[in-house]
Amino acid sequence: MSVFIGYQHVDLPQALRIRKYLRRAGIEVGMDVMDFDSLTTLHVTETLTAHIRDCTHVILMISHCSARRWWIPFCIGEATSWDRRLCLYRLGDQALPEYLAHWPTLTRPQQLDFLIEAYHREAAMRLPTGQRETPRPVQARDIHRGLRERIGRGF
């Protein structure tokens, strides 16, 4: 199990802080430094698809620079099609597009603890079978619903 952090290059410092926080919790984290403005769309989509395919969880960093960029709904679509656990990490207090309200949205580092707890709880539920692990049937939408509720309650 691993987490992929999707971010715009200007949000790198915040993405690095989140990666460090998750790694301290024993979570493998992948990131790819991409400048969405200088790379071809094909390169970006292929790279994002590969990262999302190879992870179990996706965190999309949403800032004033990225909130309305094309790659956000692309990543959401990819994460959904691969049944990945997805949450947004909003940087700043800008209003987000309405369609993003469906996804759990973190706004403070302390809320990462909710994701960490869900991650470890799900990891503990996996059953080893030889060299591969077979996950019990926990669907991403159930994880999303639980995270939204925890974030809403604040504990």
Largest sheet: 5 strands, parallel
How far the N terminus sits from the C terminus, by CA atoms, comes to 24 Å
CATH architecture identity = 3-Layer(aba) Sandwich
Structure class: alpha/beta
In DSSP terms (H or I, runs of 4 or more residues), the helix count works out at 5
Radius of gyration equals 15 Å
Using the alpha-carbon principal axes, give the shape.
globular
Unreliable stretches covering 5 or more consecutive residues: none
Q: Regarding CATH, which class?
A: Alpha Beta
Order of helices and strands: EHEHEHEEHEEH
**What is the CATH homology-level superfamily?**
Toll/interleukin-1 receptor homology (TIR) domain
Describe this structure in words.
The protein contains 5 helices and 7 strands; from the N terminus they run βαβαβαββαββα. It is α/β, with parallel strands linked by helices and 155 residues long. The chain has one domain: 3-Layer(aba) Sandwich (Rossmann fold), CATH 3.40.50. Strand 3, helix 3 and strand 4 form a beta-alpha-beta unit. Helix 2 runs parallel beside helix 3. The longest helix has 14 residues.
